[in-house]
Amino acid sequence: MVQANGLRFRTLVDGPPGAEMAILLHGFPEGAESWSRQVAALAGAVALAVAPDMRGYGMSDAPPRVEDYEIDRLVEDVAGLIKAFGRDSAHVAGHDWGAIVAWFFSSAHPEMTKSLTVLSVGHPAAVSAATATDDDQRARSEYIGLFLQEGKAETVLGEDDFRRLRAMFKPGPNPDAVPRAVIETFARSLSRPGRLTAALNYYRANLARGRGWSGIARNIQVSAPTVLVWGDQDPALGRLQAETTAEHMTGDYRLEVLVGAGHWLQFERPDEVGRTLIGAVTE
């Protein structure tokens, strides 16, 4: 348990205390365990790997208000976690909502970002533009409309012992990639009172109804070396947002496409994701 930004965070940690630090940020509806394979890989490559339960998830604190999950607060969680390990900078990686937080963190704190590795989610401005102009991306993002509805989303996702929440890990080309035991861990965690609402508040605090992604598409400028890892069969995030991310980058950037992979890249392609993270830390 680590104190940061006024909250307690449960973290998975492995690797030499004096080594280069990598912080790994998970998405919805997951937890720190989504990075277990990569934590081990980074530690084996002599890096200090830190994967927290984000605020509202797992054993970390869960503030009660929607506004407690605004992006600026999430960004400062990351800054606080890095400082809690005695560092003034780290290699930053994120998946899904963790990727969004990582994008914003790297823009707000360039001095603290040694490298940026984002999984699935391209530059927020690219995602916003794709959602506004591309029928394919709009269709992929329709689920967000449900998530923004307070009460209804909790009811729908919680019905039949959280059956729909568990089913979220199945769409895509590799439906059995996430182990059943891991899915159960995530589902049990979010079934505790207030926890599903906390996770959905990431959407509600940042993707206002009627504005969608446009509400989060600020002027994000990233100077750190950046890699976007995207599965070309991702059911939620399509090709346009991935390929147009380059238009918003001015420095060292590359797109790494994992052919035949879907959304849960840490599980579907653990070794490839691990190698990319190790490359970011050791290059």
The CATH architecture can be given as 3-Layer(aba) Sandwich
The overall number of domains is: 1
Radius of gyration: 17 Å
Which outline best applies? globular
**So, the CATH homologous superfamily?**
Alpha/Beta hydrolase fold, catalytic domain
Q: Could you list the spans in which at least 5 consecutive residues all have pLDDT below 50? A: none
State the secondary-structure class.
Answer: alpha/beta
Mean of the pLDDT scores?
95
Strand content: 15-25%
Would you write up a description of this structure?
This protein starts with a strand and ends with a helix. It has one domain: Alpha/Beta hydrolase fold, catalytic domain (Rossmann fold). With 283 residues, the chain is an alpha/beta fold. It is globular, with a radius of gyration of 17 Å. The chain has helices at 36-44, 71-84, 97-108, 124-133, 135-140, 143-147, 152-167, 180-190, 195-206, 239-243, 265-268, 270-282, and strands spanning 2-4, 7-9, 11-14, 20-25, 47-52, 90-95, 113-119, 226-231, 253-258.
